[in-house]
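Translate structure to sequence.
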């Protein structure tokens, strides 16, 4: 293929990526407006915009600015860090099935948060909560990489992640079982299902610094992911310290996911689904995949949170339940696709 033919193809790919990014930004902006307007009291986008900037009735201002805006901010930020963490882990491990939820990070973060709540060391609005969640998430990903090894295959990663998730879930159940306060147990049980309901700006202030810090750390390694996609030896020859990269990515994922879980509970599969939705549109370059995956994660969580508000039910559906219902079949589809690819490679 001549250089003249390569250049137009590169231009077409760049324009396509720019178009996808613009569409994602517009989609997220639209979902933000819908999220601010959706609830027991429906508000149109013009009414939302008016109330957001101090216009309209006092009731509309309270609904939009005090009740729905914190929930929407958290939906955007938590979805973004989950999508970004999934893309970063897939780039780090060069494995399309890598995600925080499959490796037990959210479950471990939930255990850390539940432990400090049950011990009475912190309440749901204390900064001790995200700190405990972050430490537990960091430990889970670090243990996973230590157990699975550098060149672990898909089966080893899934089994190690399943073991860590099961252990974290069992430890969480044990803490709840040993708790002497039934009201605390009930609160923890509902919190573990994953929800953005009844969140305030105090929750935003609690989670956002850790989410932003985690996102900055992961984005700072974006060029290393591209080098790592060529293999560890090639990446090292290009000046990438692979051992340091692992620790930095673990720290970024732990900060972001820990901060998110501390205010929302466990919300699974966003980090797995978002990069896969973007890969056919953006390409397989892990560097270019990070920001689109973050925006897709925001769109997925905002859409799921809107859905749980409009689905008819006798009780409130938790957003973590909905993301799992959607995510599990998608995960099974990915496993089947990987199996067919491996079968094709063997034959």
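Result:
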């Amino acid at each position: 293929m001549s250089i003249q033919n390569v250049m137009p193809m590169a231009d077409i790919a760049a324009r396509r990526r720019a178009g996808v990014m613009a569409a994602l930004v517009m989609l997220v902006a639209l979902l933000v407006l819908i999220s601010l307007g959706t609830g027991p009291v429906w508000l149109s986008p013009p009414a939302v915009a008016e109330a957001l900037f101090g216009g309209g009735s006092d009731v509309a201002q309270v609904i939009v600015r005090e009740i729905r805006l914190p929930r929407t901010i958290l939906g955007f930020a938590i979805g973004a860090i989950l999508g970004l963490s999934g893309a970063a882990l897939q780039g780090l491990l060069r494995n399309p099935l890598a995600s925080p939820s499959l490796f037990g990070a959210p479950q471990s973060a939930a255990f850390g948060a539940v432990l400090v709540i049950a011990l009475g060391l912190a309440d749901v609005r204390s900064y001790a909560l995200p700190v405990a969640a972050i430490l537990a998430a960091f430990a889970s990903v670090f243990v996973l990489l230590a157990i699975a090894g550098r060149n672990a295959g898909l089966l080893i990663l899934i089994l190690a992640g399943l073991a860590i998730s099961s252990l974290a879930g069992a430890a969480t159940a044990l803490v709840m079982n040993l708790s002497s306060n039934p009201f605390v147990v009930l609160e923890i049980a509902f919190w573990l299902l994953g929800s953005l309901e009844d969140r305030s700006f105090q929750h935003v202030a609690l989670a956002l610094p850790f989410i932003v810090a985690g996102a900055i750390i992961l984005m700072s390694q974006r060029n290393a992911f591209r080098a790592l996609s060529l293999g560890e030896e090639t990446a090292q020859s290009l000046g990438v310290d692979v051992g340091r990269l692992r620790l930095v990515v673990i720290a970024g994922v732990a900060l972001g996911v820990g901060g998110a879980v501390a205010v929302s509970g466990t919300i699974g599969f966003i980090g797995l689904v978002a990069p896969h939705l973007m890969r056919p549109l953006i390409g397989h370059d892990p560097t270019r995949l990070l920001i689109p995956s973050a925006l897709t994660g925001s769109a997925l969580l905002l859409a799921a949170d809107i859905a749980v508000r409009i689905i008819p039910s006798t009780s409130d559906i938790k957003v973590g339940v909905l993301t799992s219902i959607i995510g599990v079949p998608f995960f099974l589809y990915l496993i089947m696709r990987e199996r067919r690819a491996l079968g094709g490679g063997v034959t």
